[in-house]
Write a structure and sequence with these properties.
Strand content: 5-15%
Structural class: alpha/beta
Strand order of the largest sheet: 3-2-1-4-5
Distance between the termini: 103 Å
Helix content: 25-40%
CATH topology of one domain: Nucleotidyltransferase, domain 5
Largest sheet: 5 strands, mixed
Radius of gyration: 37 Å
Low-confidence stretches: none
CATH architecture of one domain: 2-Layer Sandwich
Number of strands: 5
Shape: elongated
Number of helices: 3
Mean pLDDT: 75
């Protein structure tokens, strides 16, 4: 009378589960990226040109603002000059401190003769650092790019 576990309700075929496609189709992405690239290539030169403006004429004077940089020149005889004026020995620190208080973000460039000993240049740089000036650079001339040390 009864039906067994295998009976009655149709065949015992395997049930197929739907598999999801886990791959990303990159073709539309590549198409969009190429279109954006072409748009940016065309619009970049147009943005750089800017707008032409006819400026008004005025007889106002120009701004006479002192540059926010100091050039220290050290010659072969270890004489230090600041922006073209020679400094007496021992006055570098006080001059730099006064400049640093007037302009906190001032830059100092050191032009030193290559025959001046490295120790003296290090002392000049230490004086600049003691004066609370953090932006210090050494000025050099461009050399032969093929020459290796």
């Amino acid at each position: 009378m009864g039906m067994g576990p295998m009976g009655g309700g149709g065949g015992t075929g395997s049930r197929s589960t739907p598999t999801t496609l886990a791959e990303i189709n990159v073709t539309p992405l590549v198409d969009v990226m190429l279109v954006l690239l072409i748009i940016f290539m065309i619009s970049a030169p147009l943005m750089q040109q800017g707008v032409q403006v006819d400026l008004p004429k005025a007889n106002a004077g120009t701004l006479n603002e002192t540059p926010e940089q100091i050039v220290l020149v050290v010659n072969k005889g270890r004489q230090i000059s600041m922006n073209g004026t020679a400094l007496p020995p021992g006055t570098l620190h006080t001059r730099l401190e006064a400049m640093a208080e007037a302009k906190p973000n001032i830059e100092v460039f050191i032009q030193a003769d290559q025959n001046v000993p490295y120790g003296f240049i290090a002392q000049v740089m230490a004086e600049v650092k003691k004066s609370k000036i953090s932006r210090v650079g050494l000025v050099t001339e461009p050399g032969d790019p093929n020459k290796r040390l």
